[in-house]
Amino acid sequence: MENNYFNNLGSERSVEVIFVEYALRKYYKNNDVILDIGGVPTTDMHLNHFKQYISDNNIDYRISDFRGGHYQGDFVEYNFTETFDIGIFLSSLEHFPKCTESDSIWREGYDRKGYEKSLQILNPNGYIFLTVPFGKHRWQPNGFHQNYNWQGILDLTKGSTIVESHTYALSEDENEWVKTHPNLMEEILYTNRAGGVGCFILQKN
Question: What is the number of other CB atoms lying within 10 angstroms of the CB of residue 22?
């Protein structure tokens, strides 16, 4: 991953969509089965290049989402009958406490439960590609988002090992995302948009 990315999509997606393709190019093996958890995005056009990469390489790419996909329903409660080699949380896991169903009911610790479920259905030594808003660890009041800091990521991802981490802060002029050490991002808030983003590659223990 580069040290700077232009904020061409006007949000953390400017980094995230590059990251997931980078991760696939580096860690995907022939015949791997991929599960994109929460993979029905609000703005699908942001993923056009990534989806084209999936298609061009004939990757077995499946989606689990309460809004649709191959496995429609609450991911935590879903009864999967198969396992996967790679799980992707593309800016989805941070929503789990209040946004895994359309009812918007608060579900305490559901992000951790979602991560635990992903490990349960992951094959031995499988990978998880995780992107989340990053900065001051807190739930966004009256919203559907949360920030994680480094300790928050460690707590969230127990049962796996961080293989790569890439954290970026939005520049003051909001023109670019700048690679920044996690310790320097502790006060970045999620306001009406993310001011930081974390991209992680993790391997099941």
Answer: 17
pLDDT along the chain (205 residues), means of 10: 96 95 96 92 74 92 92 93 97 82 77 96 98 92 83 97 98 97 96 93 98
- Is the four-CA dihedral 70, 74, 80, 86 of positive or negative sign? positive
Cα–Cα dist 59/38, whole Å: 18
User: What is residue 48's three-state secondary structure?
Assistant: helix
Three-state secondary structure call for residue 81:
coil
Angle, CA of 155, 35 and 9, to the nearest 5° = 80
Report in angstroms the alpha-carbon separations of 88 from 37, 56, 62, 108, 189.
Answer: 6, 19, 10, 22, 24
Give the global pTM.
0.94
Q: Cα Rg for the chain, rounded, in angstroms?
A: 16
Distance CA 82, CA 135 (A): 35
| CB contact set of 101 (below 8 Å; sequence gap of 6+) | 66, 74
From edge to edge, which strands make up the β-sheet containing 60-65?
A: 4-6, 176-179, 160-170, 196-204, 122-133, 84-90, 33-37, 60-65, 71-72
> What span, in angstroms and rounded, lies between the C-alpha atoms of 155 and 100?
20
